[in-house]
Amino acid sequence: MDKAISGIRTQWPVRLAAAICLAVVVIAPMAVGGFRPHWWLMFASVLFFAAALATYSLARSNRHVRFLTHGVPGLAPLYLVFLVGLCLHVVLVGGAASDTDAIYGLIRQLSYAALGWTLLQALTRGQRAVDYATVLVIGFLFYAVYGLITIDRTEWLFFEKTSYLGVATGPFVNRNSFATFLAIGMSLTLASALADDTGVGRQHRSGHRASPLEGRMRSLVLATVALLCLAAIFATASRMGLFVALVGASVVVILRLRRIVGRTGLAGIVALALGILGGLSLIMVALLYGGAVTERLGSTADSASVRIDLYLNILDMIRANPLLGVGLGNFGEAFRAYQRLPVSPDRDWHLAHNTYLALWSELGIVLGSLPILLVGLVALALLRRSLSKIVTPVSHLSDAALAAVVIVGLHSLLDFSLEMPANAYLFVAVIVLGLAPNSSSLSRGAKG
C-alpha cells in the first residue's frame, strides 16, 4: 500500500484537505476553464492551503506518507527531479520574454503537484476513491447538460462568447478543451457503469453488498450520463475531441471485455466480438450523424496544412534553444521572433497547439521530456493494474485513468487541452484515483 497503514482511519484534516481539492477539480471548469490568471492563482492558493493542512496533520500524527514507491517505482524521485529542475530553470534562466510568466507557470505546476499529493494521502482505502469518482461523475453530468443548454443560452455563461457560436463550449472558451474534459468524464463514467455490471459487487458502507438489481440500475444511470457526455462532445464539433472520446471509451470497453473473456471462455469471446461490433457501429453512427463534426471533416486537410506550417516554425524555435528553451510560460511572446510565412502574421499564436512541442520549446529537450516520461511511467503502472487477473471494486478506476492518459496523450498532439488548468486538475485527480490502493476490505473481489 505504499507505506499506508491499512485499517487505520484517515485523519479528518487529511479528509478535509482532500475534499477541498476535489471541490477545486469540480468547480475549476466554471471559471472559464481556470484559464484566466486571477482564477488559477486563486485555485493554486486553495490547493497549497489544502496540501499544507494535510502535511501538518500527517507530521503531528507521525503517520507514513504515501509516495507510490511500490505501485509506480521511480515516479516519486523522478517527479521530484522535475520540480527541482523547474524551480532552478525559473530562478536561473527565467523567461526570454517575461520572468513573471515563468514564475506564474511554476505556480501552476506546483499547484498540480499539491493537488495530486493531497488526494493521494487521503486514499488509504479503495472505497474512498470510488466515492470521489462518484462526485466527479455528478460534475460531468452537470457540465454535459450545461454545455448543451448554453449553446443557445450564451447569457448563462460567465464570459461573453464571441467565437465558436452555435457549438458547445460549456464554461470553457475553447471547444477542444471542453471536448477533452468531457472525453475523460465519459471514460470514467463508462468504466464505473461497466464495473457494477461486470465487475465485483458494490459494497455499502454498512458492509452488505448491493443487490444485482441495484447494481444494474446504477449502471444504467451511469451509462446515461456517459451518453450525455458523448452528446455534448458531438455538440462541440471538435473532430479530435470526438476521436479521442471514442478511443478512450474503446480502451475502457476492451479492458472490461478482456476480464469477461477470462472468466467465461467462449461466451466471453462472443461478448468481445459483440463489443467490437458495437464500437464499430458507434463510430459509423458518429460519422454519419455527427452533424457539425462531420461537416468539419471536409476541412481537415486545410487545418492540417496550417498546423504543419505552425509546427515547422516551432521546430525552428526549438532548434534555436534546444537545452534551456525560452522559459516556462513564455511561448506566446517568444514565438513572434520565429513566426514565418505561410503562418499568418495576422494571428497571434499564444499557445503551440501541441503540448509536446510546447514543453520542448519552453523548457528545452531534457527538462521538457521529463513530464512525458512521468506520464509514461504512470501509464505502465495503470496498464499493469488493468491487466491484472485480480478484479477489485477499484479496478475500473485504473481502466478510466489509463483511458484518460490515452485521451490526453493523443489530443495533446494537436491541441493545448492539458494546458488548461481545469483539465490538468481533472487529469491529475483521475490518475490518482486510478492508483488508489486495494485495501483488504475491498480486495475480496472476484478473480477473472
TrEMBL record:
Pfam families registered for this protein in UniProt: Wzy_C (PF04932)
InterPro entries in the cross-refs: O-antigen_ligase-rel_domated, WaaL-like
Subcellular location: Membrane
Protein name from the UniProt record: O-antigen ligase-related domain-containing protein
Any one of the GO CC terms: membrane
Record key words, sorted: Membrane, Transmembrane, Transmembrane helix
Originating organism: Yoonia vestfoldensis SKA53
Topology within the bilayer: Multi-pass membrane protein
Ranges for domain O-antigen ligase-related: 225-368
Segments crossing the lipid bilayer: 12-32, 38-59, 71-96, 132-151, 178-196, 217-234, 269-289, 357-382, 394-414, 420-437
